[in-house]
Amino acid sequence: MRTLDWEDGAIVAIDQCVLPHQESVLRLRTVEELIAAIQRLAIRGAPALGVAGAFGVALAARQRTQGGTFDEAAVRADAERLASARPTAVNLRWGVGQALAALSDGPDAVLAAARQVMAEDDRMNRQAAADAADLITKLCPDRPLRLLTHCNAGALATAGTRGTALGAVFELAERGRVEYVIVDETRPLLQGARLTSWELRRAGIPHRLAVDSAAASLMRRGLVDCVVVGADRITANGDVANKIGTYGLAVSAAHHGIPMIVVAPESTVDEDLAAGELIEVEERDADEVRRVLGMPVAPETAEAFNPAFDVTPAALITAVVTEARIMGPRTVAGGNAG
Ligand code: MRU
Q1: Is 322 in the pocket of ligand 1 (CB under 6 A)?
Q2: Cβ of 139 less than 6 Å from ligand 1
Q3: 277-327: per-residue pLDDT in tens?
Q4: Does the beta carbon of 278 sit less than 6 angstroms from any atom of ligand 1?
Q5: Per-residue pLDDT tens for 47-59?
Q6: What CATH class has 127-327?
Q7: Catalytic residue among 78, 121, 122, 232
């Protein structure tokens, strides 16, 4: 099944909190249920949040319809709460906006607009993934590649069947161009270990998990040809917000002269924000750091930082690839140490 879909008046979604050990499906019938699912990361990943936002407005339009008329102000209030459920991935607000644009034509039109967002999501991500695969092939040595990825930018992070950064990996694997993928486990919530390795195993692509802190040294040892990641927001100047740890990967990749490629749909580009420092970075519960999968690993009262994302300056990114354009490739700032 798709990560996310609409069925009989409800959003059906794979519960990403319990993967890889349970493959369980959520059936969300209200905006409240959807917001809760988004905030606990049962539905996550920027493109998937865009589609969820659009379907959420369809849920609101149905909930707020009585006797053939709907309460437009109430739908707009629901839509605003939904759009603010997570602040960093601009796709969520974008998807809500796409569906709201059809509101004056009624709930069925809103649902049709949301279905359109879902169909486009798959098309856009497939195109971006194919173009990124072409670019990586040009930039990297002519042999099967060792790719490093962070978090999960696969089918689970979209409403499609392919993903963005992991979509490029799938594409390269189909062309016989992948030796192995290094999967950062991605603390604190382990999207790499739990989700990316699950997707790669299902696709039969060789991969090895690594703790996040291993990445720089794997680069230094010459075990990484290219870093490929997704994005949650790309500002007008090309700065990129993505899962915490991405910035460190970009610094290391620049230092070692390794291409750093970002793959995302255009809906992740926020032309209204001039630069990355204007992006709101979601700060999550400290317990996510103090615990691993619910198990305490630090004193219960330890203070913790838990920013869910970081911002990588454009100068450290070799190229950003969307379905419509390639920003780059540029020579990144940094040394070329061995
Ligand atoms: O907190 P998450 O799991 O929603 O964070 C997801 C990421 O950072 C992904 O890399 C990003 O959304 C791109 S997904 C194609």
Answers
A1: no
A2: no
A3: 999 999 999 999 999 989 999 999 999 999 999 999 999 999 999 999 999
A4: no
A5: 999 999 999 999 9
A6: alpha beta
A7: 232
* CB-based contact 24:42 (threshold 8 Å): no
Of 2.40.30.110, 2.40.50.100, 3.40.50.620, 1.20.120.420, which CATH number belongs to 4-121?
A: 1.20.120.420
Distances, alpha carbon 325 to alpha carbons 90, 149, 161, 269, in Å: 19, 21, 21, 11
Neighbours of 302 (CB within 10 A): 11
Among the atoms of ligand 1, which is closest to the Cα of residue 47?
A: 15
pLDDT at 338: 45
Q: Give pLDDT tens digits for 133-183.
A: 999 999 999 999 999 999 999 999 999 889 999 999 999 999 999 999 999
- Return the beta strands (E) in 150-308 as ranges: 178-184, 207-210, 226-229, 233-235, 240-243, 260-263, 269-270, 291-292, 295-296
Active site (annotated) includes residue 131: no
Residue 336, pLDDT score: 53
Domain map of the chain by residue range? Answer: 4-121, 127-327
Q: Tell me which DSSP letter residue 179 carries.
A: E
Q: What percentage of the chain reaches a pLDDT higher than 90?
A: 93
If you measure from the C-alpha of residue 335 to the centroid of ligand 1, how many angstroms do you get, rounded to a whole number?
28
Q: Is 95 in the pocket of ligand 1 (CB under 6 A)?
A: no
Q: What's the gap in Å between 12 CA and the centre of ligand 1?
A: 20
